[in-house]
Design goal:
The chain folds into two domains: 267 residues, YVTN repeat-like/Quinoprotein amine dehydrogenase (Methylamine Dehydrogenase, Chain H); 78 residues, no CATH class. The protein is globular. It is 1% helix and 38% strand. The protein has 352 residues and is mostly beta strands. The strands form eight sheets. A four-stranded antiparallel sheet has the order 3-4-5-6, with no helix packed on it. Strands 7-8-9-10 form a four-stranded antiparallel sheet, with no helix packed on it. The longest helix is centred in the last third of the chain and has 4 residues. The protein is built from one helix and 27 strands.
């Protein structure tokens, strides 16, 4: 809470240049522009600032308009606009080139706005609030789109889109993550429950395959976006810190977490997914479990079966799979799948 922004070398961990100084209260949110040329920051001093990422110099004057702390900032995908969410219960849109406010504040939340994000195509803005809702806004007109997304039983602390923009995820003080259909606003499936304390931060991986969530329970959990299953092993901080913020690197190979213990950690994204070519025994259970997962004899995850395929697909002698990763995740390719009532009628001798 020293009111500064620092830049770090991702490879060496060394500080790059001097701290970025200018805010007069603690800095709550920072992000890079997509071209990497600028950094924006939101602060409890009620302002948004733009910085030159190479020199660290402030670009223009602070963006003023909010009447309370700025809790979240984000760039539009094309870099033309900046959005900010505030304790004053509004979202503001700014011209990234001129720093001028664009239109009127987006009003509708009944408590402070904790998180804001643009959709990948730039057409919509989403916001999460202490009023327990997620809202969708038209980025051009500022009008609310549909009704608030309701389901969380406590404050919404983080919202995010996947790369394809089909869904919205939200993390909450109610200790859950929820997934919503971005088009209809309907809840998708059941809440993701694993954390034992507030979920401060949620994010999709750049390829959309994984979700990460950081919680006050001192862990980061990784989820499989397609099935909503949690990975076997959460990532844990040290005994004195919590991990309230997590974000992926642009290439998806790493993610970072910030903590109240004054540290930033760099993590590898699924380093154990790289094939080790050391197969283990894979005695397959004959039927998927209640969530659709087929598991090995150690109860490790093998693969997931869609609901309409779970009957009649498996028998104890049907399939044997050699697992090469610690998490035992396998994707089945049915492109050349053949079906028949007797294997002798469908067997292709050319494949021997």
């Amino acid at each position: 809470m020293d009111m500064t922004i620092r830049i770090w070398d991702a490879e060496t961990g060394a500080a790059v240049g001097n701290p970025l100084e200018g805010h007069t209260d603690m800095v709550e949110s920072v992000t890079y522009s997509l071209d990497g040329r600028h950094i924006i920051s939101g602060s409890y001093d009620k302002t948004v600032r733009i910085w030159d990422a190479e020199t660290g110099a402030a670009v223009g004057n602070p963006l003023k308009g909010h009447t309370d702390a700025v809790l979240s900032v984000a760039y539009s995908p094309d870099g033309r606009y900046i959005i900010s969410g505030s304790c004053d219960r509004t979202i503001r849109i700014w011209d990234a080139e001129t720093s001028a406010a664009v239109g009127n504040p987006l009003e509708g939340h009944t408590d402070m706005v904790e998180s804001v994000a643009y959709s990948p195509d730039g057409r919509h803005i989403i916001s999460g609030s202490y009023d327990k809702t997620v809202r969708i806004w038209d980025a051009e007109t500022g009008a609310a789109v549909g009704n608030p997304l309701k389901g969380h039983t406590d404050a919404v602390l983080s919202v995010a889109y996947p790369p394809d923009g089909r869904y919205i995820i939200s993390g909450s003080c109610d200790r859950t993550i929820r997934i919503w259909d971005a088009e209809t606003g309907a809840a998708v499936g059941n809440p993701l429950e694993w954390h034992t304390a507030w979920v401060f931060s949620v994010a999709y991986s750049p390829d959309g395959r994984h979700i990460i969530s950081a919680s006050h329970d001192n862990t980061i959990q990784i989820w499989y976006a397609e099935t909503c299953a949690a990975a076997d092993r959460p990532l844990e901080g040290d005994a004195t810190s919590v991990l309230p913020v997590a974000a992926y690197s642009p290439n998806g190979q790493h993610f970072i977490s910030g903590s109240n213990g004054n540290t930033i950690r760099l993590w590898e994204s699924f380093p154990h997914e790289q094939p080790s070519y050391n197969p283990v025994d894979a005695c397959v259970y004959s039927q998927p479990d209640s969530q659709g997962w087929v598991r090995d004899s150690n109860r490790g995850l093998l693969y997931w079966v869609p609901l309409d395929c779970r009957r009649g697909l498996h028998s104890p002698a049907l399939i044997t799979i050699l697992i090469t990763s610690d998490i035992r995740l396998v994707s089945l390719d049915f492109e050349e799948f053949a079906f028949g009532t007797a294997w002798t009628q469908i067997f292709n001798n050319a494949q021997i």
